[in-house]
Amino acid sequence: MSGDTILNVAPIEIAQSRERRPVTAARETVFDIRNLSVSYGKTPAVKDVSFEIYRNMVTAIIGPSGCGKSTFIRTLNRMNDLVPSAKVEGDVLYHGQDLYASRVDPVQVRRKIGMVFQRPNPFPKSIFDNVAWGLRVLGMKDNLKDRVQHALEQAALWDDVRHRLKKSALGLSGGQQQRLCIARALAVEPEVLLMDEPASSLDPIATSRIEDLMHTLKRDYTIVIVTHNMQQAARVADLTAFFSLDVLPDGARTGLLVEYDATEKIFTQPSDKRTEDYVTGRFG
After folding, report:
1. pTM for the full model?
2. What percent of the chain is predicted at pLDDT more than 70?
3. Which of 144, 174, 186, 281 has its Cβ near the most Cβ atoms within 10 Å?
C-alpha cells in the first residue's frame, strides 16, 4: 500500500545514515524519521531522533516518564498539530514522502495512520455507530454493515457484541471498549496503527487479549506501540526503540533516542549502558 493515496508531493532524498538501523533483511520502510525534534513553546520534548519503522512489524517505544515517547508517536500522524505551541523540526517520511509538506491534508494522514489512546474513549453512541462514525465522516458508506462487522471481527470483538450492536458502547467492559476503539480505527482501512499505552488501564486478562490481537493484526498492519511495561514490549514487539532523558547545555531536559534494535537484543544484549541500566531496573 503506497503513501501516494494521501500525499501529492514527490518523494524527497535524504542522506542515509545506518547508525541506528537494525538488521531487517528486505523489510519495507514505512516511516523514515530524520533528525526529528519537537518542542512545546520553549520546552524541548524530543531532540534529533532518527530511525526507520518497517512494514508488518510491531515497533515498541520504551523509556522513562517524560522522555517524549507519546510526543514522538504523535508526530507520525500529525496529532501534535492539535497543540498550538508544538513545533516540529526535521523530517517524517511516509513511504518516502514528507508528512509535513504544505499540501498534505492532516485528516487524510490520520485516516491512513490510525491511533488508539491510553484510555478507551468510546463515543456515547451505540456500538455500531462508534465503528461506523469514521466511515460516515469520510463518506465510506457503501456496504456499511459489512465494514462495521469486518472491523469488529478484526478487533476480536464481533462474537461479544454481534447481538447488541444497537446498545450503548459505554456498557462494555474496559477491555471491550479498548477493542472497540481499535475496531473504530481499523474500520477506515489504515495502513498503520499507533497505540499509546493501549493496555495501561486494563486488567491482566484484557491486556493479554490486546497483546494477542497485536500479533494477529501485524499480518495486515504496521504497529507502533508506546509502553511503560517492558515485559509487554518483550512479548509483542519485533523491534524496540529506547528513549531516555538528556540534559541540554541550558539545563533543560529533553528526550533522545539511545538505541534501536531487535527486541531480543535490546533486552538481552543492549549496546548502550543506558539501555542496560533501564531494562535491568537500575533506573527509570
Report:
1. 0.88
2. 90
3. 186
The structural domains of the chain, with segments of one domain joined by +, span 3-105+113-120+191-279
The residue type of 32 is: D
Q: Map residue 125 onto helix, strand or coil.
A: coil
Work out whether strand 239-247 and strand 192-196 pair parallel, antiparallel, or are unpaired.
unpaired
Report the alpha-carbon distance of residue 136 to residue 271 in Å, rounded. 48
pLDDT at residue 3 tops 70: no
pLDDT band at 4 (very low <50, low <70, confident <90, very high): very low
Instruction: Show the cell assigned to 31.
Output: 516511516
89-128 residues labelled b (16+ CB within 10 A) or e (exposed): ebbbbbbbbbbbeeebeeeebbbbbbbbbeebebeeebbb
**Roughly what angle, to the nearest 10 degrees, separates helices 174-187 and 127-137?**
20
Alpha helices in 188-261, H assignment, sequence order: 204-217, 230-236
d(CA 223, CA 53): 9
Sheet holding 43-54, edge to edge: 97-98, 86-94, 29-40, 43-54, 253-262, 239-247, 58-62, 222-226, 192-196, 113-116
Rounded Cα distance, 266 and 269, in Å: 6
Residue 13 has pLDDT above 50, yes or no: no
**Which strand (E) or helix (H) includes residue 32?**
strand 29-40
